[in-house]
Design a protein that fits this description.
The protein has a domain of about 80 residues. About 95% of the residues lie in helices and about 0% in strands. The chain is rod-shaped. By secondary structure, it is mainly alpha-helical. It contains one helix and no strands. The longest helix is centred in the middle third of the chain and has 119 residues.
Length: about 130
């Protein structure tokens, strides 16, 4: 019976040791879970700030893109205006030059006609 009693004592001591180890393990797991929870809270806070910063940057980029589109539209309008202005300037300069050349060609033709008619009458003019 004494052996049975010692066996019971050894079992109880073994169970107490196992229970103490289990409680220690539970305490360590709980401590780690608390640390993980606080780490997640810090991460959430930092991610919130980061998302706010990113959203501000995206809004600024959208504004810059809109400004750039307006600038490109304006540059296109200026280029169109310059093209129209250069066509107008070309027309303003070219038209008189063409007229002067046409007038000169006409005068040359008229002079050659008068010379031909003057040589056929013997150089004398009719009255």
């Amino acid at each position: 019976m004494v052996a049975l009693l010692w066996l019971g004592v050894i079992l109880v001591v073994g169970l107490v040791i196992a229970l103490v180890l289990a409680l220690s393990l539970v305490k360590q797991v709980r401590t780690q879970l608390v640390e993980i929870g606080s780490g997640l809270e810090r991460l959430d806070s930092q991610l919130g700030k980061l998302l706010k910063d990113v959203s501000v940057l995206v809004e600024d980029a959208n504004l810059d893109v809109n400004k750039f589109e307006i600038l490109l539209d304006s540059a296109g309008k200026v280029a169109d205006s310059m093209g129209s202005a250069s066509k107008l300037a070309f027309s303003a300069v070219a038209a008189p030059i063409v007229r002067v050349r046409a007038l000169r060609a006409g005068m040359d033709k008229l002079i050659s006609v008068f010379r031909l008619s003057g040589s056929s009458t013997g150089g004398k003019r009719r009255r």
